[in-house]
Amino acid sequence: MNAGTPLPCVALLSEVLDLGYLANAFRKEFPGIDLRMGNDVASLGPVEDVDVAVCWFPPHGLLAQLPKLALIQSLAAGIDHIAADADLPRDLPLCRIVDTTMAAGMKAYVSWAVVQQHRGMAAYVASSAAGRWEEQPVVSPRHHRVGIAGLGTLGMACAEALATIGYQVRGWSRSAKTDLPEGVQSFHGDDQLGDFLGGCDTLVCLLPLTAQTHGFLNASLFAQLPRGAHLINVGRGDHLVEADLLAALQSGQLSGATLDAFSVEPLPADHAFWREPRILITPHISTRTDPAVIAQQTLSNLAALRQGERPRNLVDMARGY
Ligand code: NAP
């Protein structure tokens, strides 16, 4: 931003996280910036100044009370945590973060999650700790089929990484894809979902959470996977019907699940998932967004809007992602 740019007023809004960790990145991008934090109108200070709200689970109803608000910026790839606000001012531009460092983190996590299950790494952790030399079956990646539900920015990056390792990779999306990484097969739409699922030894969920994808990972879907398939959920907790997962693991339809997102976070201490040894839990850490990237994309989106231009990574509210 140049010296003549009006001072932006940015509100950092979250009911579940202290967003103070973003303050330095915003100050570095725009020294003197007016930064606000709070969960209601009283704690935010004069709300008529606020130009932008940077959000992760913002308090419901608060965005509608910011009269000058020009931009709602998700600090993540998903926007479900904002769209859930019944009072969301839906006419305002809502943008999400799309970023190569976020994609790199997701590629690393998903590749690890596929390999640890496919190569039986949990057994090596146990045998190593017990001082035992014990081989697990070695199956070449080219005999293991990985399917990615959601072949968007992150799904495509993961598909490319897994295909480079040598896995048989397929993806499923809403619309047909033409420009695919080498070796990646694509399926689209509800008509092709069954064919897609039938060839997934590992299924990765990288869908956005929308009205259409809520509860996507359910008993009927699990029944269409090859017996003994492995599930990786790096989408959102509400993609998964939890009781259906437990039943599919108990019946052997699924052999394991690696889960990074949950309907309630932190996952409660008494949750049944903690006691199911075939579920590997990580606490929503598959990837992170660099604070500098959040600050840069937020401020450049505000600058674009002030110049009458389209901001980057604008969400299509009719589509829901
Ligand atoms: P994206 O670029 O918007 O891609 C979404 C993909 O899902 C697209 O391929 C889209 O199809 C497909 N899709 C959406 N609705 C569908 C439907 N009803 N049926 C079939 N396919 C559908 O999103 P992204 O940046 O890759 O991020 C995906 C999601 O990952 C985020 O929304 C977020 O929930 C999750 N995420 C989780 C973490 C974590 O830490 N666990 C971190 C980052 C992101 P089209 O290509 O045809 O549009």
Describe the structure in your own words.
Helices cover 29% and strands 17% of the residues. It has 321 residues and is α/β, with parallel strands linked by helices. The chain has 2 domains: 9-99 and 289-306, NAD(P)-binding Rossmann-like Domain (Rossmann fold), CATH 3.40.50.720; 103-281, Rossmann fold, CATH 3.40.50. The chain has a 7-stranded parallel beta sheet with strand order 8-7-6-9-10-11-12. Helix 8 links the parallel strand 9 and strand 10 (229-233). The model has no long low-confidence stretch (mean pLDDT 97). Bound molecules: NADP nicotinamide-adenine-dinucleotide phosphate.
Shape summary: elongated
How do the strands line up in the largest sheet? 8-7-6-9-10-11-12
Report on the biggest sheet: 7 strands, parallel
Helix content: 25-40%
The beta-strand count equals 12
CATH topology of the largest domain: Rossmann fold
Which CATH architecture of the largest domain? 3-Layer(aba) Sandwich
β-strand percent reads 15-25%
Strand/helix succession: EHEHEEHEHHEHEEHEHEHEEH
The CATH superfamily of the largest domain turns out to be NAD(P)-binding Rossmann-like Domain
Low-confidence stretches: none
Question: Features of this protein?
Answer:
five-stranded parallel β-sheet; elongated; Rossmann fold; alpha/beta; seven-stranded parallel β-sheet; binds NADP nicotinamide-adenine-dinucleotide phosphate; 10 helices
Compile the SSE list and pairings.
Layout (H helix, E strand, L loop, with lengths): L8 E5 L9 H7 L4 E4 L3 H4 L7 E4 L15 E4 L5 H4 L10 E2 L4 H19 L2 H9 L15 E5 L3 H13 L2 E6 L10 E5 L4 H5 L4 E4 L13 H5 L5 E5 L8 H10 L2 E6 L19 E3 L9 H16 L15
Helix pairs in contact: 1-10, 4-6
The structure holds NADP nicotinamide-adenine-dinucleotide phosphate (NAP).
